[in-house]
Amino acid sequence: MTHARITGTGSYLPEEVITNKDLEAFCDTTDEWIRKRTGIEQRHKAASGQGTSDLALHAAQDALADAGMSPEEVELLIVCTVTPDQMFPASANLLQGKLGAVNAASFDINAACSGFMTGLSTADAFIRAGRYKKILLIGAEIQSSRMTWKNRDTAILFGDGAGAVVIEAQETDSGVLTTHLGSDGKNYEILHLPRGGSRDYYTKENFDDDAYTIYMKGPELFKRAVIKFAEVAQEALDATGLTMDDIALFVPHQANARIIEAAGERMGIAPEKVMVNIQHTGNTTAASIPIALHEAKEAGRIKEGDYVMLASFGAGLTWGASIIKW
After folding, report:
1. Catalytic residue among 44, 180, 253, 294
2. Cβ count near 51 (within 10 Å)
3. pLDDT (tens digit per residue) in 199-239
4. pLDDT of res. 150
5. Quick check: is 27 catalytic?
6. Strand order from edge to edge, sheet including 318-325
7. Is 280 a catalytic residue?
8. Are residues 164 and 181 in the same domain?
9. Structural domain tally of the chain?
10. In the annotation, is 253 catalytic?
11. 274 and 157 in one domain?
12. Catalytic residue among 113, 180, 256, 277
């Protein structure tokens, strides 16, 4: 049977590091306060002039090298992001040109923190349909470019970075076994960036300190994230006939260490099976899962034949899960 199999991974974190101590100069917070509530110790910041496609390029080249694939072999290139280089064209189009993937179609996906899961589901569907055989999927974000640094609720959370996977059609029992997505648009105001779109575009009159403010109802987001993580994970298990005991590694979206811990407890998975790297990356939105997946693989936490679960929850509201046989 043809499966979509991950044959290469890669990631990129910008050189500049913003520690919690650094943030004390920008907003009313402390290192202790941030660690206790989020588990984050530092996050990375893109250099001036860098765009999302630049970060994606590094991760993409890393993943292609890992897979032993040339850019010319890529048939489809997908970039998952909420921070594109510009309004249009898509960052995927810019990346396609920079990478030299001359034979690839390309497009962006905007599903916030569930972007990578949406991209994985899309890639899996294309491969199952027989449309493409070699796909490059990237999650990349530069949240710092529009960060309101005085807003403690969000300035402490987000980091910049990119993660990538090469996905190939292979006749094997390994690969993506199932993907599940969901959304709840009625509750979008729990986490959103209201300005800058067609409804409230930036003008000289309205551009102020709140122009880039991300609005977040933290307690409500926490509660819903924990519930949905567990629900969509169970959907994936039910679809494959597996149990949580079969899962060798759980790679969740790195939103907040407390959310990850609470979700893991609700799901009934042992803490040692949960991949957590938010302490040094922060929340990198659509990039968080592929970055964490790459780091887990490089650390030897995944071996051939392992069942790996990925799951996300984010703005939209959106959520998703997948089980992969490595």
Report:
1. 253
2. 20
3. 777 777 777 666 677 888 989 999 999 999 999 999 999 99
4. 77
5. no
6. 175-183, 318-325, 307-314, 247-252
7. no
8. no
9. 2
10. yes
11. no
12. 113
